Amino acid sequence: MQKYIHEHAKYPKFTWNKEEILNILTAVAGLQGKILGKMQQFGFGIQQEAMLNAMTEEIVKSSEIEGEILNSEQVRSSLARHLNIDLQQSSTPSHHIDGIVEAMMDATNNYKAPLTKMRLFGWHAALFPTGWSGMHKIDVGKFRNDEMQVVSNKSWREIVHYQAPGPEEVEKQMEAFLDWFNKDDNENPLLKSAIAHLWFVIIHPFDDGNGRLTRTITEMAFARSENTSLRFYSMSAQIQKEKKEYYRILELTTTGGLDITAWLKWFFECLIHAIENSEKIVAKVLKKANFWQKNSASIPNETQRHIINLLLDGFNGNLTSGKVGKICKVSQDTATRLLKNLVEKGFLEVQGSGRSTHYVLKSL
């Protein structure tokens, strides 16, 4: 019969190979210091822009892992408001997206404050403002009262990948988790972030949203490990890239013994990749700053500036006049005229023809 990690007598006394983990912990801490040191060389505006990009990616990709596709423009607009960044023209975020952003901002801005049951309930309510998850009514802002299984269907057969602790155990296990998370001990804060991620997944305390809350807690733990609310990389974006392996290592760990060495190694390797990929975020921000430093006077029209920023920020898909019209809230004729003017000025070039006509940044 399958025995899950929480069914072992000494749970939650996790163990790991300290020698194996020490080397990779040192490598991660070095990369964290490197990216923070690099960003300190730049002005406040560039730091804020880089943070806006990283946190937009974090929130969008965290939901994407669970199959929910958020409007990235709305996420970006909501974050910009919280970070006091003027986006000129921006999308109006939904109440749902505002709530998700507020939860993440609370986790990272107030990382020194204790993580409490009521704080978690508030984050959970922000994920499900209607009290529904898809077509299912769920208990919002409270721990689950039902059994929780992670299942999949293959060849008309239901496969149980994991059985979480029973609902009667959740309150007690969460008390132990929160006491440990908030304890000001000498445990390495990076190590604590990896254990917190796993432990919360093991408990699975809510009806839904456990994955997103796990990654919110992880971001809070990262902020504690760096002693700053500034975020310049996205762990969720990297997990999304490695999602198959992420679920494999979680299943392997939650259905095994109390030695979590394999999980810790995977988590820190994924984090290394995430920090290394942050170089792309920084490069994008610098490219944008350099572009406007050279060309600001040549593009005085606010809508045209927004069009250019959409492309500089890495617009997802082909930018057409129809999309510009909807995003910038202008007629398609006006959008076409503004786009053609940017082509004439040498900033954009046309690709495709007919219905597939779209615009890209010209190599400058």
What does this protein structure show overall?
The chain is mainly α. The chain folds into two domains: 5-286, Fic-like fold (Orthogonal Bundle); 299-361, Arc Repressor Mutant, subunit A (Orthogonal Bundle). It contains 14 helices and six strands. The protein has helices at 18-39, 44-65, 72-82, 95-109, 117-127, 167-182, 189-203, 210-226, 235-241, 243-254, 261-295, 302-312, 321-328, 332-344; strands at 132-133, 136-137, 149-154, 157-163, 348-351, 358-361. The strands form three sheets. The chain has a two-stranded antiparallel ribbon. It has a two-stranded antiparallel ribbon with strand order 3-4. The chain has a two-stranded antiparallel ribbon with strand order 5-6. The longest helix has 35 residues, at 261-295.
Features:
single chain, Arc Repressor Mutant, subunit A, 2 domains, two-stranded antiparallel sheet, 14 helices, globular
Blueprint of the fold:
Layout (H helix, E strand, L loop, with lengths): L17 H22 L4 H22 L6 H11 L12 H15 L7 H11 L4 E2 L2 E2 L11 E6 L2 E7 L3 H16 L6 H15 L6 H17 L8 H7 L1 H12 L6 H35 L6 H11 L8 H8 L3 H13 L3 E4 L6 E4 L3
Antiparallel strand pairs: 1-2, 3-4, 5-6
**CATH topology of the largest domain, what is it called?**
Fic-like fold
Oligomer: single chain
Total count of helical runs of at least 4 residues: 14
Overall average residue pLDDT: 92
Percentage beta strand: 5-15%
Summarize the structure.
This protein has helices spanning 18-39, 44-65, 72-82, 95-109, 117-127, 167-182, 189-203, 210-226, 235-241, 243-254, 261-295, 302-312, 321-328, 332-344; strands spanning 132-133, 136-137, 149-154, 157-163, 348-351, 358-361. With 364 residues, the protein is mainly α. It has two domains: 5-286, Fido-like domain (Fic-like fold); 299-361, Winged helix-like DNA-binding domain superfamily/Winged helix DNA-binding domain (Arc Repressor Mutant, subunit A).
